[in-house]
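User: structure tokens for this one?
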Amino acid sequence: MSDVNEFTDLYHKDTSDSVVRFLFEQHAVRGEICYLNKSVSDLLSRHHYPRPLRALMLELAASAVLISSTLKADAQIMVQLQGGRGEHAIRYALININEDLSFYGSALYDSEKKYSDLLTFKDLAGEGASLIISVFPKDGNKWQGIVPLDGTGMADALQGYFNNSEQLPSTFFIYADPDSLKAGGLMLQIIPEAEGNNESLEHLTVLGSTLKLDELSQISLYEALRRLYGHDGVKAVKEQQVRFKCVCSRERCETALTSLSRSELADIAEDKQGTEMTCQHCGQVYHFTQDEVKQLLLKISQ
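Assistant:
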């Protein structure tokens, strides 16, 4: 890690769709800062979510990026909002993010209802909603944390998760613009092995509260850190790229079709138009002709 005041050649670098990890040695606090543009635009481009739900998905994406390397390395992480009760409560919204910071996600809601632009995060979450964070390490030992959603946004939800479930005092600032499809975030977290860093976290949180999404969209992440914490000895590492990448494929669709019973697949094979499967995460449509379905039927009949 290097002092951000030494990154003069990176102050004007385009750090869109990336995340930078940093720490304060004199404060025993670590953190991450991210700004997302094209990646979240790709996430939402094939969906027709109402404006409030776009904002929620943007918050969810920024949240997933910030915590991806905090919880566990070499693991896929799913950040899911499980909706509760309410007239406009969604069923769920989720983001899956891999160790290489590629992510995908989707939301399920009642598209027949009218969603006013004035609906809030709490309206979409509903009463009794919860935040579920699932970690899928490569060694196979999955673990999961669940906390109730009592706040007004993902920042409150994540702070509740880390402060209560992980016993790691943390501060989150999450930003989302559902019109320009931009998102960002700042995380501050104490280093648990150190002592007396709660006061430092409060000090750094006050400074961090001055950051705005418009500022993140105009300057590099390094310049943002320098402006916020240039006098606090903040050290940072090279940014990591973030991108949208769905895991759907024609092969996965074939597997899904061949997992049907023979009678179910035989019924589909009777349709001269063939069949289509649409990915719920990215909207990609996969078409199978009648002959292709018959070949799959023959495959499972052997």
